[in-house]
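Sample pair:
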Amino acid sequence: MTDTPNNSPGRERIEHYISKEPFNPYAVEILTPEQERFFLASQWKMMWWKLKRHKIAVASGIFLIVLYITILFSEFLAPYGLQSRNVDHIYAPPQAVQLFNDGDLIGPFVYGFKFQLDMENLQRIYERDETKVQTVRWFCLGDAYNFWGMVPMRFHLFCPAEGGTLFLLGTDRLGRDILSRIIYGARISLTVGLFGITISFLLGLVLGGVSGYYGGWIDNVIQRLIEIIRSFPELPLWMALSAALPVTWSPIVIYFGITIILGLLDWTGLARAVRSKLLALREEDFATAAMLMGARPRRIIGRHLIPSFMSHLIASATLSIPSMILGETALSFLGLGLRPPITSWGVLLNEAQNINAVALYPWLMLPVVPVILVVLAFNFLGDGLRDAADPYK
């Protein structure tokens, strides 16, 4: 086109194309199935899609799920009973699982021990005896136990050979199998974190929600309380409160006492996170609309405000569980937490305080391995959940 409007030279006219179809205000753009799936997805579904891209977080979540399932069957999975003693194999080293003997495949087995006592160094000397081939038995009858303390049973996933031994992680000073005690201890150490975070989560939601929604003198009182609690050194405060528990209490009462202590001291960070979110969200239109419609503050907080950032709270709670597991382990290691006959990973590590024993029998430190793996798994999962819950990523 070379025509120029308004007789102004040098300006080219651009032709416009306008649809001559009548305007339909009710017409809806047709979405592809993939677009419809994305636009109609809930917040939780979108969070799951983002989490799946975090491979380490997904692997950590699967590992933790499997681990928590195993604590339901600790007695069945352990080859020995919790208090079973092998007095002839005190401080026995770990036995390696073998598959081949003299070039023949005979399945999983271990070699027996040759034992002698070094009277000069007062040390037990164990050597592998390759003439004693002890095949591992599967789905077998072994040490008697009470399943969940109620049902008498003797059925195990795997057992030592008849008259043989199966110490995959060695034994302790009383001849007790360390692997079996680690499996039993997982039930206590892992549930301490869950019960503790439940108490912490409830306190953080209630006090943080009230502080952020009402503000004023209520907010000042709660925030000063949080600052007082956070001003105390964490570990010495745990130690002082744990030492205050009477030694005459039963092991189960002490277990719940430690759990309550861990929960009562860990809610402050979550409460401040909830408060900061509510301070920003309480002025939003949906909160104002709920208030004008006559909703009570409790309903506004519980049904409208907190669910809008629940994904962030779950990520924060996941990152808090490792600190509680480490807290219980540290207290039990120092002798101020759980005490025998309750068995946890911290109680097992308490026996490794003697550096001479550790130097001679390093396998006594093996209970620290599941602690490290669980803490790392929770941290990886928490990082993945936090990234998935972030709307700006």
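The chain has two domains: 95-166, 180-389.
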